[in-house]
Amino acid sequence: xxxxxxxxxxxxxxxxxxxxxxxxxxxxxxxxxxxxxxxxxxxxxxxxxxxxxxxxxxxxxxxxxxxxxxxxxxxxxxxxxxxxxxxxxxxxxxxxxxxxxxxxxxxxxxxxxxxxxxxxxxxxxxxxxxxxxxxxxxxxxxxxxxxxxxxxxxxxxxxxxxxxxxxxxxxxxxxxxxxxxxxxxxxxxxxxxxxxxxxxxxxxxxxxxxxxxxx
Length: 215
Fold this sequence. Notes:
Elements: E1 5-7, H1 10-31, H2 36-39, H3 44-58, H4 61-66, E2 68-72, E3 77-79, E4 88-92, H5 94-163, H6 166-187, H7 194-214
Parallel strand pairs: 1-3
Antiparallel strand pairs: 2-4
Helix pairs in contact: 3-5, 6-7
Keywords: Membrane, Transmembrane, Transmembrane helix
Transmembrane segments: 167-187
């Protein structure tokens, strides 16, 4: 004959047999794949399946009645408190199912949070890449425009050089130089050298004559 367990009061009795029920139903929760160890190693899709299964079981009256423990006062245990009026304690698998449901919900929230973080990071990377690509395109476009402008200027210079002789180009340079010299001397109120005036007029006359010949 088993000895009767002596407990202080109802709260102590409930805690004691609750711990006993956890151990008693541990094998069943493992068979149902609703134990913490099994739930810790599955993905979010399977977690949602297990959540639905656990919620269905917790409201299944036949299942709960089948997996219920009843410990009777004065048969299995006694309490020291004389003011406690109850016949026994009924314990079932609901506690383990609630624990599994709570764990699953927290696990889903955790995984979805990690997924959202990864999604945000991916979006940030994509945005940075898009901005970098746009910036690169703008720089390439600017480079193309600068190159085209340079080519246009270069073509203008080449066309000018192709039309003008070397003598005309040198003469133009000398004309500009002499013109600057004359302007400076006039600004300083000094008499310009006759040779500079003569050279300026000579080159200027050359260009007038060259212009008429071209026409």
